[in-house]
């Protein structure tokens, strides 16, 4: 019996049995092997390129979708290459298997440790306790419920489930012996690619995977949708379990806090996401949720409490709420703006009296989606660019050979094209700009990028207008997330992606992870987040502004 092999990976080293009618992408999903399939396997993005080292005659002929891309010899799109014959083994190499550069840095904790989960004995660490007291109260308690005997260790897990990445921290929930008033020690930070990327690069692709049948226009049954959500849920939880397996503290993790956008959080808990794919794109389950690790299949202490933070509304989820907690804008008298540009973008504006929010699909283009030369922040991605004498000077992630341009590089390139007069203020270029012999930026690419920046700029303008203030009235403009952390602020301002107020801009790193960690450290932070989620005004800018489409069109141009 012939098989299909992926020799770059230890997984499935014995090969997978042929199943006629399955695409290479189907095999990759089955094996848990990551590949970028931003369009969800519809043959539109061209990102899932693979090289067929052996057995190409077993596959179907090139499809029309594949013929529209400049595929090299022996290259196929994994989503289009289908096993049709059984003549010999198939050997497949994944072209873009580099590691993502994932932001793990975040704000330092800013409150005293008062976790929901604690030990009555451990609570007094650092004090001279009577041994009999330790024996008497030798138990781990979470929200009044005894979970386990106290064994000298109590850890927690903070998880930011991003659309593209997974970042999580293991935290010591016991105040250190040499207490400084800060919350517990961060024992380990782990960053991985979200394996759901094989099901599509954005939340809409994953929602469609779960709810739309193979014949596209037909919705799946309720039972079928539940099965698909479980599939998406399992691949994320399995990835966390695999990472924790390397450590010897899994039995001592008694609590976890999960944040993510509305789709990611609900998938993690196996909840319905159907409503998020249909107008008005609102989640059914917005309230905080608590499950046990055992219920979710999360391999920590079985009775550990897993807390999913509240959702704000629409696609503004628990990650945006965690950003608010981390930045502290909810406590300040003067209003600030918080911008998180990921695969989905969030803009939040306000102070202690009033908070408003909006979401947009701004990050996709700046993460490589629909840009011919675009790629995620993986090894070999061009991360910054300057133009000197008409030629591009660049650096790549990991100093590898360039394979494409990631978001920070795309911002630099737009700004440089504008500065050098290669692109005019109406975003027009006379010819494609070559960065390398194989990597170029086309007029179509520029359209995708300026459309995305126009959406983000428009949301900022409308929220400020709706709030009744101007940029000059803002105290700070916080940038959260990996994209915001790595961009050149001056260039982002030049192309209109950020407000022209460089002195107010503060990068806070992974705000979602920092906020999740605060909720893990502090019951008060968790309660505050739930109150904020109920009070914040989640807006839809296209409904607030009658002239929304014209405003977006105007913002596609560049200012003097």
In short:
This protein has 560 residues and is α/β, with parallel strands linked by helices.
Task: Please give the structural blueprint.
Elements: E1 3-5, E2 16-17, H1 24-31, E3 49-54, H2 64-67, E4 75-77, E5 90-94, E6 117-119, H3 131-136, E7 139-142, E8 145-149, E9 155-161, E10 165-172, E11 186-193, H4 203-211, H5 222-244, E12 253-260, H6 262-268, E13 289-292, H7 293-296, E14 305-308, H8 318-327, E15 336-341, E16 345-350, E17 355-360, H9 363-366, E18 381-388, E19 391-396, E20 404-405, H10 407-419, E21 433-434, E22 440-441, H11 443-467, E23 477-480, H12 481-486, H13 489-494, E24 505-507, H14 511-521, H15 523-535, E25 537-538, H16 541-544, H17 548-554
Parallel strand pairs: 1-5, 9-12, 12-14, 15-23, 17-25, 18-20, 23-24
Antiparallel strand pairs: 1-2, 3-4, 3-5, 6-7, 7-8, 9-10, 10-11, 13-14, 15-16, 16-17, 18-19, 21-22
Helix pairs in contact: 4-5, 8-14, 8-15, 11-17, 14-15
Explain what you see.
This protein is α/β, with parallel strands linked by helices and 560 residues long. Among the domains are: 3-94, Ubiquitin-like (UB roll), CATH 3.10.20.30; 117-318, 2-Layer Sandwich (Nucleotidyltransferase, domain 5); 373-441, no CATH class. It is built from 17 helices and 25 strands. The strands form six sheets. It has a six-stranded mixed β-sheet, sandwiched between helices. Helix 8 crosses helix 14 (511-521), helix 8 (318-327) crosses helix 15 and helix 14 (511-521) crosses helix 15 (523-535). The longest helix has 25 residues, at 443-467. The N and C termini lie far apart (66 Å). Mean pLDDT is 85; it is low at 120-136 and 177-181.
């Amino acid at each position: 019996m012939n098989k299909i092999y992926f020799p770059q990976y230890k997984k499935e080293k014995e090969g997978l049995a042929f199943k006629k009618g399955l695409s290479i992408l189907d095999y990759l999903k089955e094996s848990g092997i990551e590949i970028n399939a931003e369009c969800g396997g519809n043959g539109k993005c061209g990102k899932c390129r693979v090289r067929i080292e052996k057995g190409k005659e077993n596959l179907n002929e090139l499809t029309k979708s594949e013929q529209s891309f400049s595929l090299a010899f022996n290259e196929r799109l994994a989503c289009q290459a289908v096993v049709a014959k059984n003549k010999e083994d198939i050997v497949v190499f994944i072209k873009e298997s580099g590691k993502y550069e994932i932001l793990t840095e975040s704000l330092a904790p800013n409150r005293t440790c008062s976790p929901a989960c604690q030990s009555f004995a451990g609570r007094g660490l650092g004090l001279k306790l009577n041994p009999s007291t330790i024996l008497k109260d030798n138990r781990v308690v979470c929200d009044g419920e005894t979970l386990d005997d106290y064994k000298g260790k109590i850890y927690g897990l903070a998880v930011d489930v991003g659309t593209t990445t997974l970042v999580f921290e293991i935290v010591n929930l016991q105040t250190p012996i040499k207490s400084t008033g800060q919350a517990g020690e961060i024992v380990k930070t782990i960053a991985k690619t979200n394996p759901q990327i094989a099901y599509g690069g954005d939340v809409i692709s994953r929602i469609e995977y779960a709810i739309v049948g193979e014949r596209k226009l037909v919705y799946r049954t309720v039972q079928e949708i539940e099965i698909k959500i479980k599939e998406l849920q399992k691949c994320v939880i399995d990835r966390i379990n695999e990472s924790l397996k390397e450590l010897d503290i899994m039995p001592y993790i008694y609590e976890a806090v999960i944040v993510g956008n509305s789709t990611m959080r609900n998938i993690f808990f196996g909840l319905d996401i159907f409503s998020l794919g249909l107008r008005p794109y609102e989640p059914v389950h917005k309230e905080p949720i608590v499950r046990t690790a055992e219920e979710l299949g999360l391999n920590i202490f079985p009775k550990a409490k897993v807390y999913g933070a509240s959702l704000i509304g629409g696609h503004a989820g628990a990650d945006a709420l965690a950003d608010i907690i981390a930045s502290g804008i909810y406590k300040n008298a003067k209003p600030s703006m918080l911008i998180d540009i990921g695969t989905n973008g969030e803009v939040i504006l306000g102070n202690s009296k009033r908070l408003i929010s909006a979401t947009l699909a701004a990050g996709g283009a700046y993460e490589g989606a629909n840009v011919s030369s675009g790629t995620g922040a993986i090894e070999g991605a061009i991360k910054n660019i300057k133009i000197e004498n008409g030629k591009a000077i660049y650096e790549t992630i990991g100093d590898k050979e360039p394979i494409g341009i990631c978001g920070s590089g795309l911002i630099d390139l737009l700004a440089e094209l504008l500065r050098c007069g290669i692109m005019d203020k109406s975003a027009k270029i006379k010819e494609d700009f070559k960065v390398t012999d194989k990597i170029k930026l086309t007029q179509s690419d520029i359209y995708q990028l300026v459309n995305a920046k126009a959406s983000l700029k428009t949301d900022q303008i409308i929220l400020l207008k709706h709030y009744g203030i101007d940029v000059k009235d803002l105290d700070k403009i916080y940038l959260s997330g990996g994209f915001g952390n790595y961009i050149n602020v001056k260039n982002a301002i030049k192309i209109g992606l950020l407000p022209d107020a460089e002195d107010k801009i503060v990068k806070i790193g992974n705000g979602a992870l920092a906020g999740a960690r605060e909720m893990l450290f502090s019951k008060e932070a968790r309660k505050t987040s739930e109150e904020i989620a109920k009070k914040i005004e989640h807006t839809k800018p296209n409904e607030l502004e009658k002239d929304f489409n014209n405003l977006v069109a105007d913002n596609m141009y560049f200012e003097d």
